[in-house]
Amino acid sequence: MKKLKLYSRIECPLCEYAEELLIENGIAYEVVDIDDSEELIKSYHVRIPVIANDQTELNWPFSAEQATELCNG
Fold it and tell me: Residues 37-68: pLDDT tens digits?
């Protein structure tokens, strides 16, 4: 099972909801704060929360099942 990246930002209610979904379903992830990089802001500003493995990204809304598949893929 791979660890996902959760592209997020502070004070983003949808990002907090996505993080809760990952925690409740035991899905390993690390948070990437898009505000740490101009490049990340340009890529993800209107798309967050986004989860990603090394090959694929899923924009919100995503389900626990989709996140699990992404983790296993």
Answer: 999 999 999 999 999 999 999 999 999 999 99
